[in-house]
Amino acid sequence: MGGKKWRWGVILDAGSSGTRLHIYRWKDARKALKNATPEDLRSLPKLMTEKKWTKKIRPGVSTFGDKVKDVGPEHLQSLIDHALSIIPAEKVHDTPIFLMATAGMRLLPEAQQTALTSEICSYLQRNTRFSLPDCDLHVQVIQGETEGLYGWIASNYLLGGFDHPDQHQHGKGHHTYGFLDMGGASAQIAFAPNATEAEKHWNDLKLLRLRTLDGNPREYRVFTTTWLGFGVNQARESYVRHLEDRYADAAGELPDPCLPKGLRTTLEGNLIDRRKTRTASLVGTGQFEECLRLTYPLLGKDKPCEDNPCLINGQHVPAIDFDVNHFIGVSEYWHTTHGVFGGKGDQAYDFATYQKRVKDFCGRDWQSIHRGIPSGNNFDVRLAQEACFKAAWLINVLHEGIGVPRIGFHEGLSKANVSKSALEAAKQKGFADPFKPVDKIDGVEVSWTLGKMVLYAAGQVPPAGGNDRYPVGFGSNTVDVGTPPDFQFAGSSWEPLRFAGNQTGSAADADADDDWDLDAEDILDRAKAHSTTGFFAFVAILLLFLWFFRKRDRRMRVYGSVKSLLRRHHHHHHPRGRPGKGGAARGGLAGLASKLFGHRPSSGPAYERVMEEGDADRFELASSSGAGAGADPDGDAYDLSDSSDGLSSSSKSPSGLGLSRLGLSSGLATPVEQHHPYHHALLSPTSSALDRAGLVARTESRERLTVPPHLALAGVGRRSRAASPTLLKSPRLSPLET
C-alpha cells in the first residue's frame, strides 16, 4: 500500500544514435503541500531519478523508417519492460509516457516521420497501461528550439537558478544559466538575454511559464535556437566532402590533418590496412592547427545575416553578454573535453590548457596511441581516432561561432568587478566561468528530458485561488498577460491521484490513505523512534517508583492503606458480596498493587487477559487529537486513524509499543465483571495520578480490546468496539454526570 504519494513519469529520448529511457518520480503536489516550509512553497516540485532508472538501446528509432511495424516489438518493448520493473504496478495507469524524437528523426522525410510516430503511439496504447491520452502531445518529433528550452529548464533546475536566485546573481539582476547542447546531428543554444537585449529582441524570445508549489506562476523570457547539421557526426561528413572537393585530383589518398599521424581510415571512418585497400582513404597527418583552419568554414560565418546579430550559418541570435550569461555545455561538450583528453577533475574549462592537451595528443603517431588502448576495446579506438576532429569542431563552435572568450579561468575572473571572496566561492562551484562542460549536477545527469518532466510536474500543482489563468507551458512572447495563441501546454493537470480500481479519486479518499503514504522504511523508522520514546518514559517512571518505595516498611504501609480503603469501599457498595466473582475482581487493581508492593494474594484465580477475536498485534492505542503524530522525512504528517486498516501500534503510538512489549499495558485494559468491587476506585479522585493519567490512558484501545462500559462512559477506550452483552445489560451502571 505504500508509496501512494508519488507521481511517476516516463520519457523516451529518441535520438539519432539510440533511444534512452528516463524515469522520474516526484511527490503529488497536494501531499507535498501538507507540511511544506516557506522555502518549499516558493520552489518547483522536487523530482528525483536514479541511475538504474535509465536504459539506452541502439540504434535509433529513425533506422526503422523502412520497417515501421518492427519499431515496437524489436525496439521499444525492452525499454517498456525495464520501466515496468521500476514503477509500481498500481501506479502505471496514472503514469504518463512520452516519446520525443530529436535530430535523427528530423532528417527523415515527413511521411516516414508521421508513419513512425503513429505506429509508436498505437503500439504503446495497445500494449501498455501507461497514461497516453493524446498521441500528438505524447509521441512527437520535437523541434530543436524545444529541445534547447527543455535543456535550459533542466540546467537551471539542477543548479538552483529557479529556487535560489539570490545565490546565483551574475550581475545586473541576472541569475539563470545558458545551455549548450551538441549531439550527433544538431546543436542547440538557449539563454535569457540581459535586459537590454531582451527588450530589443522581445519578439525572438519564448515565454516560459512554470508554477511553484504555492500555486503562483513563474515567467521567463528565453531565446533558443538549433543548428541542424552542426552536430559532430554531421559536421564530420561535411568535412570529408570538403576534403574530397579539395583533393579531387589525389590518387585515392586524402591527407587529413584531423587524424593522428599515420592513421588510415575509409571515408566513413573505418580502419583499413594500406596493403589491402584500393578505395579512397583518409591518411592522418596530425596537424591540429591545420585541422582548426579547415573546419572553420563549416560554421557558415559567411552566410548572409538577415536579422543582426548572427552567430552560425546566418541564424539570428541576440548578443550574448558573457558578464552575466554563464553557459554550461552537455553531451559532446562534456565528452570531447573530458574523454580522451582527461581533465575529469577540472573545475572549469581552460581554453589554453585544453588546446595544449589536444595538440600534444594529435601530434603523436597513431601506433603509439593505439598501443595505449586495451586490446579489443573497439569503442576506445573509435574515440581516439575521432578525438582530434571533435576537439577542433568544438573549439571553433565555442569560440569562433558562439563567441565564448578564449581565456583561462583566472584570467577571466580578474576582469570581473567582484570581491576576492566572491571569486573564491565562484571558483569552488564553477559558476563564474563563461563556459563549463558538465555531465552531472549533484549526481543527476543533465538531460533535456528532465526539463520536460519538470514542466509536466509543475503543471500538476494546483493554481493559487483555483484560477488557471496562467497555465504552465511555453509559447511566443507576444502577450503581456494571458496565453499566446501558439502556447504549448505542459500536458498535465492538477487533478487528484487515480488509483487502480478507483479511476475517479477524491480528496476524501486520498485523506483516508494518508497513513499509507509512508514507505516501508519510513514506517520502520517511526516505529523505532516511537518505541524508544515510550521505553525511556517507562524506565523513568519505574525508577521513580523504585526510589520512592525502596524500603519494605514504606511499601507495606502504603499497601495496607490502599487495601483498607478498598475494603471499606467494597463493603459500602456491596454489603453481601459475591465470592464467586471476587477472584476476578482482585485480578485488576489488586493484582497490580501486589506487583508494585511485593504482596501476593493468598487466594483467587490468576488474572487472564481476554481479547476479542483477532490478532493481538493489530490493535491501536487511542490518543488525543494529534498525539503521537510524526513527521514524514519527506514532509508529510500522518494522523492516527479510526480505520481498522490503520498502522499497528508498533508504527503509530509514541509510547504504546514500549509499554505493550514490557507487559504493562495488559495490567489495566481488562474486561471487568458486572460488579467489579474497584470500578469506582479507578475513577475516584483519591486514585493515584499514575492510575488515572498514566497507565490507564496509555492502554486505552481504539479496537481489538474490550473496555468496560463504565470506563467507556468516562472516555477511556471510547473508540473500541462494544463490550460484552452481559456488561451492557447491567442495571447497576448508569451514565456519569458531567
UniProtKB/TrEMBL annotation:
Ubl conjugation keyword on record: no
Biased composition (Low complexity): 622-632, 640-658
Residues covered by region (Disordered): 622-658, 714-738
Sequence intervals crossing the membrane: 532-549
Keyword Hydrolase attributed: yes
Superkingdom assignment: Eukaryota
A Pfam family reported for this protein in Swiss-Prot or TrEMBL: GDA1_CD39
This protein's UniProt keywords: Hydrolase, Membrane, Transmembrane, Transmembrane helix
Stated family: Belongs to the GDA1/CD39 NTPase family.
PANTHER family associated with the record: ADENOSINE/GUANOSINE DIPHOSPHATASE, NUCLEOSIDE-DIPHOSPHATASE MIG-23
Descriptive protein name: Golgi apyrase
Organism of provenance: Remersonia thermophila
